[in-house]
Design brief:
The chain has 349 residues and is an alpha/beta fold. It has 10 helices and 16 strands.
C-alpha cells in the first residue's frame, strides 16, 4: 500500500537540497490484523503543525518513518475479538492515533498519554490498523472530510479541560493557527467574555472574528500588554491559551494574566527552550496556574459529539491527492492555508 514517509531528516525550509528534509510516497506491506484491531480505509489525513517538526527530527526517530495522524476513514475489516464497541464494515470513523497498553501504571491511573508500551501507525496512507479502542464513530451529519479534523479539535477540547474555564471569564488565544482557531471556537461555546485573538496574519485575524473573537491584536504592530489591559479594564485575562509556539509569545503571555489566572501552553516548543518565569510575580503575588498539554487523552468520544457544531470549512478547503503529498507539505510550509488535507483514497468522500 502507499504510505507517506519521511526518508531524510531535515528542515523542510532548508534552502540546501542536500540537507532539506524529504517527504515522499513509498510502498509498504499491510500486516495482518491482531486481536481487537480494525482495518481502516483512510479517506483523509490532515497535515498537523507537528509534522514538519517530525521531519526535522524533534522526536528522535530515525528515518524512514511514516507520517500522518489526523485521519478519517471507513472500516474495511473487523479483526478477531474486536467486538466491544460494535464496529462493522462500512462504519465511518476517526479517533486517537496513539495506542496504549491499558495495564501499566499510567494507563490505570488516568494518565494514558504517558504510556510507554503503546505506539502508532502512519495515517497518511491508503490503509491503517488501529485497536478498536482508538476509534470513534463519526456522527451521521459529519462528513469524512470534516471528520479528519477530529484529532486537532480534541487538542482544543483537552485545552478547555485543563483551563477549568468558567462562563463569563476573559479569554485570550495567542496564535491563530489551526489549533488556536479551534481553541477560540470552543472558548466561544463556553461563554468566554472579551474573547481575544493575538495573531500577526490579518487573514487569520479575520477568520477569528468569524469564529467569535470580539477583539483582535496584531502583536507585530501593537503593544500586546497595553491592548490586553485596555480590553480587560486593567485586570488582565482569566484564561490564556498560548498556541503560537513562539518563545516571545510564551513569555509575554505571563504579563497578560489576571490574578488567579490559568495559563495553558498548548503549542509545542523546542526541547532546549527554557521559559523564564518571575516566581514572585506569577506564583506568589498572582497565584496563577501554569500548565501544558501532551496529546488529548479521554477526549475523543466527547469531541465526536461536538465537532458538528464547529465551523471547519476554512480548514478543509485545500486538498491534495495522496500521490501529491510532497507538494502538500510544500504548500503547508508557505503558511498560506489554515489547514491542508491529503485525500488517501479517491473513492471515499
Amino acid at each position: 500500500m502507499k504510505v507517506v514517509m519521511t526518508t531524510r531528516i531535515g528542515s523542510l525550509k532548508d534552502p540546501d537540497p542536500a540537507k532539506k528534509g524529504i517527504v515522499e510516497v513509498c510502498d509498504m506491506p499491510l500486516r495482518k490484523l491482531n486481536e481487537g484491531e480494525i482495518l481502516i480505509k483512510v479517506a483523509y489525513c490532515a497535515i498537523c503543525g507537528s509534522d514538519p517538526h517530525s521531519v526535522e527530527g524533534i522526536f528522535g526517530r530515525p528515518a524512514p518513518f511514516g507520517m500522518g495522524h489526523e485521519i478519517s476513514g471507513v472500516v474495511a475489516e473487523v479483526g478477531p475479538k474486536a467486538d466491544i464497541n460494535g464496529f462493522k464494515v462500512g462504519d465511518r470513523v476517526s479517533g486517537n492515533f496513539r495506542s496504549t497498553c491499558g495495564t501499566c501504571y499510567y494507563c490505570t491511573n488516568g494518565m494514558e498519554q504517558f504510556c510507554r508500551h503503546g505506539g502508532g501507525e502512519p495515517g497518511m496512507a491508503e490503509y491503517l490498523i488501529w485497536h478498536e479502542k482508538q476509534a470513534v464513530k463519526l456522527p451521521d451529519d459529519v462528513s469524512l472530510k470534516t471528520g479528519c479534523i477530529l484529532e486537532p479539535v480534541s487538542i482544543a477540547v483537552r485545552a478547555m479541560d485543563k483551563s477549568n474555564i468558567k462562563f463569563g471569564q476573559n479569554v485570550i488565544v495567542l496564535g491563530g493557527g489551526p489549533i488556536g482557531l479551534l481553541t477560540l471556537q470552543l472558548a466561544n461555546l463556553y461563554g468566554a467574555a472579551n474573547l481575544t485573538i493575538s495573531e500577526p496574519i490579518a487573514a487569520r485575524r479575520d477568520i477569528a472574528v468569524k469564529y467569535g473573537a470580539k477583539h483582535t491584536i496584531d502583536p507585530l504592530s501593537q503593544d500586546l500588554k497595553e491592548e490586553a489591559l485596555k480590553i480587560t479594564g486593567g485586570r488582565g485575562f482569566d484564561i490564556l491559551f498560548e498556541v503560537s509556539g513562539v518563545p516571545k509569545s510564551a513569555e509575554t503571555m505571563q504579563a497578560l494574566a489576571a490574578p488567579y489566572a490559568n495559563l495553558i501552553y498548548v503549542a509545542q516548543y523546542a526541547r532546549d527552550y527554557n521559559m523564564p518565569v518571575n516566581m514572585w510575580d506569577m506564583l506568589y503575588m498572582k497565584e496563577v496556574t501554569m500548565t501544558g498539554i501532551f496529546v488529548s487523552p479521554y477526549t475523543f468520544s466527547r469531541t465526536a459529539q461536538v465537532i458538528g457544531r464547529l465551523d471547519l470549512d476554512d480548514m478543509t478547503s485545500k486538498v491534495f491527492d495522496l500521490d501529491d503529498a510532497p507538494a502538500a507539505f510544500d504548500a503547508h510550509m508557505t503558511g498560506k492555508y489554515p489547514k491542508i488535507l491529503v485525500k488517501c483514497n479517491p473513492d471515499l468522500e
